[in-house]
Amino acid sequence: MIIIAYKPGQLANRLFLFAKFLAYGQEHNLLIINPSFDDYAHYFSKTKNQFVPASQGFSGSASRKWIKLFFTICFYTGRILHRLKINLNFISVTYLDWSQHYNLDQDNKLSRKGLHFIQGWEFLAIKLLTTHKATIHQFFQPEINLKNTIDNFFRSIGQSKDLVGVHIRQGDYKFFEQGKFFYEVEDYLSIMKSLKEKNPEISFLICTNNKSISSQDFGTLNVTFAPGHELIDLYLLAKCNYIMGPPSTYSLWASFYGNVPLYQIEDKKRAISLNDFKLVY
């Protein structure tokens, strides 16, 4: 049994961490328990109906207060095990700091019998994510009300051969990595125009955490703004034909979940074409 007792940031980070261990659990026939998913369990049909988020079992209405309490207990248990350097056959902790990596694709240590606490972020699982993608996709389906909202909004946009989801992440990105991937609206607009010049019928879905941005910022481009809900916007991106945005697990999850080609903006001055969009997994 593996217990994820660590919160590596927000929604997409926690989705990826959960997904990697779901795949690992599927590969090795292990139960994965994830109380660190407390903030987002209610978004998904599977975890919404679990007493605590897990790869299977634990049926019952999720109480966020209970899950948070359970997470706190697991978190400090993991820290104590790490500090005391306790790693026994029947109980262990795998702890990573932000500079450490652990390749689940090449691991079988965590598959041995016992209780294993996980604390860290940089768990690699490219092969596992690819192999068990269908299981992950099924597990992380939005609960029915959110799913209907996503589907209805997407239908309201209308059919488009080339719909590009644009993730404009500002806010916290002004400080993340010293603002390395913080781009102004004009920077996104320039890239969008370069796509429009090569593909006249192209349209754009804007997902952003900056509420001051409006359609007027994009001139004559055909743009639609997503509702601004973290889960709805994420899964709307996953329905687009292409996705672009700064390096972020948010757009990366949308690409992975929806099997959508992604372009991560690292050079804001580069003119691009649809050929620059690639599948990541």
For this entry, give a set of tags.
alpha/beta, five-stranded parallel sheet, Rossmann fold, 2 domains, four-stranded parallel sheet, 9 helices, elongated, 36% helix, 281 residues
Overall description:
- The protein is of the alpha/beta class.
- It has 2 domains: 2-139; 144-276, Rossmann fold.
- The chain has helices spanning 11-28, 45-48, 64-83, 126-131, 133-139, 144-157, 185-198, 230-237, 249-258, and strands spanning 2-4, 32-33, 91-95, 102-103, 115-119, 123-124, 163-168, 203-208, 223-225, 242-245, 262-264.
- The strands form 3 sheets. The chain has a 5-stranded parallel beta sheet with strand order 9-8-7-10-11, with helices on both faces. Strands 2-1-5-3 form a 4-stranded parallel beta sheet. A two-stranded parallel ribbon has the order 4-6.
- It is elongated.
Secondary structure elements and their pairing?
Blueprint: E1 2-4, H1 11-28, E2 32-33, H2 45-48, H3 64-83, E3 91-95, E4 102-103, E5 115-119, E6 123-124, H4 126-131, H5 133-139, H6 144-157, E7 163-168, H7 185-198, E8 203-208, E9 223-225, H8 230-237, E10 242-245, H9 249-258, E11 262-264
